[in-house]
Amino acid sequence: MACSSGSSANMSSINVSTPSMAVTADTVDQKTCPLVFEIYGKIWNVQARLGQGVSASVYRVNSGQASSAVKEFQLDAQCGDYGYLKESSVLEKIQGHKNIVTLFGMFTNHNPFGVATHCLLLELLDVSVSELLARVSNQGHSMWLIQHCARDVLEALNFLHREGYVHADLKPRNILWSADDECFKLIDFGLSFKEGHQDVKYIQTDGYRAPEAELQNSLAQAGLESGSGCTTAVDLWSLGIILLEMFSGIKLKGTVKSQGWKDNSSAVVDHIFSSNAVVYPAIPVFHLRDLIKSMLHNDPKLRSTAEAALINPFFSIPFAPHIEDLVLLPTPVLRLLNVIDDSHLYNEDEYEDIIEDMKEECQKYGTVVSLLIPKENPGKGQVFVEYANAGDSKEAQRLLTGRTFDGLTGMRLHVQHKSHNPSHPKPLWICLLNVITF
């Protein structure tokens, strides 16, 4: 199959819809971004800055063989290395859970100006829940996506809380999708602490802050000490707000600060559900509403634990993903639309030739595990290309952007899908990465 950047009357341009990063990635600026990191004797090139905060910056880096994330901590004149030491210490002790970001290692970076900074080498993740919320503004997510996110985060919190830790900054930006593991993961443990040994007075982000944390912050600002530290219950409050935002499709910062919420938050939750429930099945809505309410008691002692929340009836209901869900969440599979017309599907010789051509072209961008062109609905006229990993799939999507194809007259294929999670086999077309329209 011929591939070029030009146009032709016999060729069709490729348009790619790309899920954005969790944080808008800056192009590499030599004045503000390091160009490379030397990590364990190997040079990693900086491809983009994924985020920048007061105490640290996060970069996407590539070694030529793999991509990762580097979190570089700025030196703090008052606190020294406290932020780096705190987060690395917590991460080291909670490694091994599938819903918590993986820490690959720690290193010191020496920049050309002679300044040494401490860094964490982390698993590179994909789209955040914050980004997902922005993409479906005022509509709300499907029950499948809400359930998937809720279960993954609760699994992470259940593990974290059993280990005695409070995350203390749960918010949409700190929940990211892993394309390789096909699950959501928690990141950013800079405010985390051992329950009963709270060493940070100001915890959680405005809009996701539990009432007891709000009170503690207010007392700290007034120079007063609170009677006791916050508990793991603050994380459940934050998750309750996040799930309510995913259901409603709206940010609730103003709502949770309103007098109506303070007077009767349960009534506000009921109103949100009654306003949105018309597009959802009644029983799942009922269970989701009660699950969220169980996390939003003003009294932390009455709030559900992560362990108890996981056995809520909401998680016993099977949901199928919507096509929009699968396009939003990057996976190792590319979905190509309008690649061929129906006439090619019924000519066996052309069909086999087209499959061979498609596979040959797609293999230029990574290892192709399988390729499927359905002959019947659903999916007729589409091509699904499964790569060995999400990295190859995303790289193929990037390189295919703007390309044109010729010679799409024929195909061949025998597909046997290999699930990335053997305990949850699924048909190839169920896991999608990006939509490419010819």
TrEMBL record:
Binding, ATP: K71
One annotated GO molecular function: RNA binding
GO annotation terms (biological process): positive regulation of translational initiation; regulation of protein export from nucleus
UniProt entry tagged with the keyword Lipid biosynthesis: no
Keyword ATP-binding in record: yes
InterPro entries hit by this protein: Kinase-like_dom_sf, Nucleotide-bd_a/b_plait_sf, Prot_kinase_dom, Protein_kinase_ATP_BS, RBD_domain_sf, RRM_dom, UHMK1, UHMK1_RRM
RRM domain sequence ranges: 332-420
A cellular component annotation (GO) from this entry: neuronal ribonucleoprotein granule
Residues annotated as domain Protein kinase: 44-315
Listed Gene3D superfamilies: 3.30.70.330, Phosphorylase Kinase, domain 1, Transferase(Phosphotransferase) domain 1
Pfam families xref list: Pkinase (PF00069), RRM_1 (PF00076)
UniProt KW keywords: ATP-binding, Nucleotide-binding, RNA-binding
Coiled coil region boundaries: none
Protein name: Serine/threonine-protein kinase Kist-like isoform X1
Organism: Carassius auratus (Goldfish)
Lineage, opening ranks: Eukaryota, Metazoa, Chordata, Craniata, Vertebrata
The gene coding this protein: LOC113101048
